[in-house]
Write a structure and sequence with these properties.
The mean pLDDT is 87. The protein has 80 residues and is an all-beta fold. The chain is globular and about 30 Å long. A four-stranded antiparallel β-sheet has the order 1-8-3-6, with no helix packed on it. A four-stranded antiparallel β-sheet has the order 2-7-4-5, with no helix packed on it.
């Protein structure tokens, strides 16, 4: 699995690529807002919590506060 850890400044918006095979968005500190194309729900991810995003469509996060984010791609494995 590929993993990216990054600091994200408050108000910064970024697209999350490669969610078809599963992607775990972990908030190590701060607060994130996540929205996914074709999903009527929006999600708040707080420090020390995570959310698995899967399927086609765009996923976008915005830093509600300064935060540290860990994105792990391929969380569903090759048979998902």
């Amino acid at each position: 699995m590929e993993q990216d850890v990054m600091k994200v400044k408050k108000g910064h918006v970024m697209r999350i690529p490669n969610t078809a095979s599963g992607c775990r968005i972990s908030c190590l500190s701060g607060v994130l807002w996540l929205t996914k194309e074709n999903d009527p729900e929006d999600y708040i991810i707080t420090a020390d919590s995570n959310l698995v995003v899967q399927g086609r469509g765009r996923s976008v996060i915005e830093a509600v506060t300064d935060c540290v984010v860990c994105i792990t791609h391929g969380t569903l494995g090759r048979y998902a």
